[in-house]
Design goal:
There is one protein chain. Among the domains are: 70 residues, 2-Layer Sandwich (Alpha-Beta Plaits); 108 residues, Calcium-transporting ATPase, cytoplasmic transduction domain A, CATH 2.70.150; 131 residues, 3-Layer(aba) Sandwich (Calcium-transporting ATPase, cytoplasmic domain N), CATH 3.40.1110.10. It has 27 helices and 25 strands. A seven-stranded mixed beta sheet has the order 13-25-24-23-14-21-22, sandwiched between helices. Strands 6-5-7-12-8-11 form a six-stranded antiparallel beta sheet, with no helix packed on it. A six-stranded antiparallel beta sheet has the order 15-20-19-18-17-16, sandwiched between helices. It is elongated.
Length: 755
């Protein structure tokens, strides 16, 4: 079984996507088929040859862009000189297509009939020429629509919107309403084009949100096969030993892992990588949504698409361009468009039965009153005319498009703000969350222990700078540099920050004693750094220090004691620092009506300390991964509970999978993005309340769109049945409703959270 992907062109509305999807699904050998209207991407699984799918799409009246990397075709003539936006932008859009250009000509042909027959009948200006011109307009604008309707019936065996409009136009001709027949087709063709133009602008806006990585970069490369130095000192080709490396401007897709990329001040970074030299403040907002630039020095990681600050950087590429963080984000946002929310699936199912039902109802409206109540069948307000109006009004375009435009806009806005949501289903689930379970380490805290206190036994100044305490820290650092333990890193980082990292040479004979600590030799003296329990058993220390260390442990901190040649020298206290955003995020969640629950494998004292600092409602401590999973399941046993689990995306995988929504503190890692339903790219918990607010706003927009689309239909149904409507008013109602719900959904592209 193979999977093919196609870029579909020529679609004007969501109903077009349904027609293509249905037609392709009926091909022999197709096991699965999904067409994303906004992305214009058709994915087909099965044994059917690619050429067969392309042929079916073209038989249905649409086209396939064979080269997915090619841009839109450049228009010629008048269209090329028109802007791409505004009223003239829509005119350009009409002139770019043969079918819409014919509809534009049809609009000019029918203008006299509209003016004298519909708008100014009191002038008494009548002519059969007007009717003839209306029929020509009907043919020009209606032929593509009628052809698509026929193919939809024959190939897809589906009653599409084009079928409804074609029946309405033919019926209008049958009763002699030639101008209205032509007007229906012209308005419908131009209205569909306007809807297509609006969606194209939405699609462009979404694409621009993700189009942040540059296409070229400056790379340091060796001079290869240098003709100038061939033969010098035996040089026969390959990297030139004389020229060395030089700067080369190359396409991003040609950059290989391990190459050095030079980034000038203010330039966009082209690759994921690690800073080799230079220092700068980098704006990572396009990737992580962080509002402030992040300082980058040698060894720091950077993301493709980030914007360099005032310093020049040399960056060693660590990922191929197609595997960069921004590429994965783009791919996953595209994938998200195919994961439909329950509301969207409901609308799709509803419209599947709705359109055929409308045809049946229209038939009954046309036939029942004349047959059973002697009501007029023909005439300007006869029941046939009303049935034709009903067909036009009932077009489900606005209803079908009401949901996906809002979902895709919200998902794109979330990605722009450093939140990756894997699909509409997860966005809808996120909007219903009323309980958030939070892992402690790496979620509420930094996950990187920091030294908060060091005290020598002969400390001279407990409340300020102390040379003897600094000497103790330098001594401990000399031993801990040989260790990879998180406590060791906290001590060495603190020593470096105080300029004490090189006071002593690195310790010799460093040995780790599991569960006790680490030993090493510094200047011939044995240094031991160990737990309080270890010192209680083997190394004497003062009651004062014992009490202070015990109090620190009760507060949830990690104390270590230090000795030199068997003599107690002092202690250091390490703590996992609480994230700066945690307290505010928990407060915002509470304001949203969402309660919080901490799940941690640390001790109850540590959990209680962090909970008190950030304001978490409940705490469960001393947990194994299975315990976290059981707690999530227990909470979900309450049918009213909708729980989100926030963790690192790897260690908390069972709990993340069991929760209503699994949320990873990703930091841009591939593992986190692939594990969770939602990823907070910048490791900023403040993105969580933003995400919930955005999800709730998206669902409110969807419900408003659906309600509006249904209400406008019901209102015009009433007008039609009471005899107050016209065919052209019905077209305006249908097209207008589609455009209004599209624009309303697109407002989410400009969503700004009120914090």
């Amino acid at each position: 079984m193979t999977q093919h992907e196609f870029r579909i062109t020529g679609m004007d509305c969501a109903d077009c996507a349904k027609t293509i999807e249905t037609g392709v699904r009926q091909l022999d050998g197709v096991s699965a088929c999904a067409l994303n209207y906004f992305g214009g991407t058709l994915r087909v699984e099965g044994s059917t040859a690619r050429e067969v799918v392309v042929q079916r799409v073209r038989h249905l009246g649409y086209d396939v862009q064979e080269d997915k990397t090619a841009g839109a075709k450049v228009p010629g003539g008048i269209a090329a000189r028109l802007p791409k936006s505004g009223v003239l932008g829509f005119l350009r859009f009409l002139l770019e297509s043969r079918n819409t250009s014919l509809a534009l000509v049809g609009a000019l042909m029918i203008a006299p009939g509209i003016l004298f027959n519909e708008l100014l009948p009191m002038l008494g200006v009548q002519s059969p020429v007007f009717s003839g011109m209306a029929l020509i307009a009907l043919a020009l604008a209606g032929y593509p629509i009628a052809r698509s309707a026929w193919r939809s019936l024959i190939i897809s065996r589906q009653i599409s919107v084009n079928v409804l409009m074609t029946i309405a136009a033919i019926g209008a001709v049958f009763i002699g309403a030639y101008v209205e027949a032509g007007l229906v087709m012209v308005l419908f063709a131009i209205g569909e084009a306007l809807e297509g133009f609006t969606v194209a602008r939405a699609r462009d806006s979404i694409s621009r949100l993700m189009d942040v990585a540059p296409h070229e970069a400056t790379v340091l490369r060796a001079c290869m096969d240098c003709k100038e130095h061939l033969g010098v000192d035996g040089y026969a080709g390959g990297p030139c030993p004389v020229c060395g490396t030089h700067e080369a401007r190359v396409p991003v897709q040609d950059i290989r892992i391990g190459e050095t990329v030079l980034v000038k001040p203010g330039e966009r970074i082209a690759v994921d990588g690690r800073v080799a030299s230079g220092a700068s403040a980098v704006n990572q907002a396009p990737i992580t949504g962080e509002s402030s630039p992040v300082d980058k020095i040698a060894g720091a990681e950077v993301f493709a698409g980030s914007i360099n600050g005032e310093g020049a950087l040399a960056i060693v590429s660590t990922n191929l361009p197609e595997d960069s963080t921004i590429s994965r984000i783009i791919h996953m946002v595209e994938e998200a468009q195919n994961r439909k929310a329950p509301a969207e699936r409901f609308v799709d199912q509803f419209s599947k039965y709705y359109t055929p039902a409308v045809v049946v109802v229209a038939f009954l409206v046309a036939a029942a009153p004349p047959l059973f109540f002697q009501a007029p069948f023909l005439g300007e307000q006869g029941w046939l005319y009303r049935a034709l109006e009903l067909l036009v009004v009932a077009c489900p375009c606005a209803l079908v498009i009401s949901t996906p435009v809002a979902l895709i806009s919200a998902i794109s806005t979330a990605a722009r703000n450093g939140v990756l949501i894997r699909g509409g289903a997860y966005l809808e689930a996120l909007s219903r969350i009323n309980l958030v379970a939070l892992d402690k380490t790496g979620t509420l805290t930094e996950g990187r222990p920091e030294l908060i206190k060091v005290k020598a036994v002969d400390c001279e100044n407990p409340n300020g700078a102390c040379g003897r305490c600094d000497a103790l820290l330098a001594l401990a650092s000399a031993v801990e540099r040989r260790s990879e333990h998180p406590v060791a890193r906290a001590i060495t980082n603190a020593a470096d920050a105080r300029g004490l990292g090189s006071v002593f040479a690195l310790a010799d004979a460093v040995t780790s004693v599991v569960g006790k600590g680490v030993t090493g030799t510094v200047l011939g003296r044995k240094v031991v750094i160990g737990s309080h329990t270890y010192f209680d058993a083997d190394i004497a220390h003062s009651q004062e220090s014992c009490a202070e260390v015990s109090a620190a442990a009760r507060d949830g901190n990690t104390p270590v004691l230090i000795s030199e040649d068997g003599l107690y020298r002092g202690y250091a206290i390490v703590a996992d620092a609480v994230r700066g955003s945690s307290k505010d995020a928990v407060a915002e969640l509470r304001a949203l009506g969402v309660s919080t629950l901490m799940l941690t494998g640390d001790t109850a004292a540590t959990g209680a300390r962090v909970a008190a600092l950030v304001g978490v409602d409940r705490v469960h401590a001393d947990l194994l991964p299975q315990d976290k999973l059981n707690i999530i399941r227990a909470e979900l046993s309450n049918p009213k509970t909708r729980i989100a689990m926030v963790g690192d995306g790897i260690n908390d995988a069972p709990a993340l999978a069991a929760a209503s929504v699994g949320i990873a503190m990703g930091g841009g890692t591939a593992q986190a993005m692939e594990t969770a339903d939602v990823t907070l790219m910048g490791d900023d918990l403040g993105r969580l309340p933003f995400s919930i607010r955005l999800a709730r706003s998206a669902m409110r927009t969807i419900y408003a769109n659906i309600a509006f689309a249904i209400a406008i239909k019901l209102a015009f149904f009433a007008l039609v049945l009471l005899g107050f409507g016209t065919l052209w008013m019905a077209v305006f109602a249908d097209v207008g409703a589609s455009i209004i719900v599209t624009l309303n959904g697109m407002r989410l592209l400009r969503y700004r959270s009120a914090t």
